[in-house]
Design brief:
By secondary structure, the protein is an all-alpha fold. Helix content is 82%, strand content 0%. The protein is built from nine helices and no strands.
């Protein structure tokens, strides 16, 4: 694992997962609480509305992998296709967070959240392919595991610790925190990763 830390692609994945994974767990952990606090929902009402954001997640999950694969099949490089898909996902997520922050009705709120989770899944589907795009052999699992560990750290910092603090004020700063996390995660891929390509032939040959 020390060898893979010598590559920029590994650190790009670490930072992207640290900043972006908390978005998913924000909704998993806090969506029912938000609907109850913000709109006075009971359990029945939460059940009627809380599924909508996850429908958006399904759409984003299916389309995120498809669109980058489609672009690659059309002759785009892996680097261009992955980064463009991640950028498109981020472009959906940020306005979704803004609309969710200021939504006047529960329907508008959950539709905006559906856009957020759709964009998130487009981003994360392509980010999670980076270990296999950039590495091979045992290094793929090592880098993926390091990325998962970083994701847990981000969830602990932002979703578990910071959200309870911000929500004491209102949920507006919680959603605005989400808008700040997106460019940090996307920027890590664009600025730190460099060109997405296979980089670890030396490690792979030693590991085999």
């Amino acid at each position: 694992w020390r060898q893979v830390l010598g590559f920029r692609a590994t650190w790009a994945l670490i930072l992207a997962r640290f900043f972006l994974d908390p978005i998913w767990w924000l909704f998993v952990n806090w969506l029912p609480i938000y609907l109850a606090d913000r709109f006075g929902f009971d359990v029945k009402a939460i059940g009627m509305f809380a599924w909508v954001p996850y429908l958006g997640a399904v759409v984003g999950s299916l389309s995120g992998g498809w669109v980058s694969g489609h672009w690659i099949a059309r002759g785009w490089s892996v680097d261009r296709a992955r980064k463009r898909a991640i950028l498109v996902g981020g472009a959906l997520t940020i306005p979704g967070f803004v609309f969710a922050a200021f939504a006047a009705t529960p329907l508008l709120a959950v539709v905006a959240m559906a856009v957020v989770l759709a964009g998130f899944q487009v981003m994360i589907n392509n980010i999670q392919t980076l270990p296999s795009d950039c590495f091979s052999g045992k290094s793929v699992g090592t880098v993926a595991g390091i990325g998962g560990l970083s994701a847990v750290g981000g969830v602990l910092v932002f979703s578990t610790w910071l959200v309870p603090v911000l929500s004491r004020i209102s949920y507006v700063p919680v959603f605005l925190m989400g808008t700040a996390l997106v460019p940090l995660g996307v920027g890590a891929i664009y600025v730190l990763c460099g060109k997405i390509h296979r980089v670890d032939s030396t490690i792979s040959s030693r590991s085999s």
